[in-house]
Amino acid sequence: MTRPFISLCLASTALASFASAAMAAPPGYDNIDTVVVIYAENRSFDNLYGGFPGANGLANVSADQARQLDRDGK
After folding, report:
1. Euclidean distance between CA atoms 26 and 41, whole angstroms
2. Predicted TM-score (pTM) of this structure
3. What are the per-10-residue average pLDDT scores of the chain (74 residues)?
4. Measured distance CA(43)–CA(59) in Å, rounded
5. In this structure, are residues 3 and 11 in contact, taking their beta carbons and an 8 Å threshold?
6. CB under 8 Å, gap of 24 or more: what pairs does 34-43 form?
7. Residue 31 CA, distance from chain mean position
8. For residue 44, what are the CA distances in angstroms to 27, 38, 53, 58, 70?
9. What are phi and psi of 63, to 5 degrees?
């Protein structure tokens, strides 16, 4: 009974250490105090944030890729 118990304890300790390492915040996250979310009614993400550094905006999208469709797909 002792050997399976020790094996279980070792396995759970190893899994706990892996889980805590996987959940660690990336460097610099501890410097963030406040997150502000800005939104406006009837505005898209690209309209508000598309020009921000690192945002995947629509500035370089071709007209064919950004074609607007109605609910019937036309």
Report:
1. 32
2. 0.31
3. 66 62 77 86 78 78 82 86
4. 16
5. no
6. none
7. 18
8. 30, 12, 17, 11, 17
9. -60, -35
- Could you identify the residue written with the tokens 């304890």? 9
- Asked if residues 14 and 22 have their Cβ atoms less than 8 Å apart, the reply is no
Q: Which two tokens stand for residue 31?
A: 């410097």
Buried/exposed 40-54: b ≥16 CB within 10 Å, e otherwise: eeeeeeeeeeeeeee
Is residue 55 within 8 Å of 49, Cβ to Cβ? yes
Strands (E), the chain: none
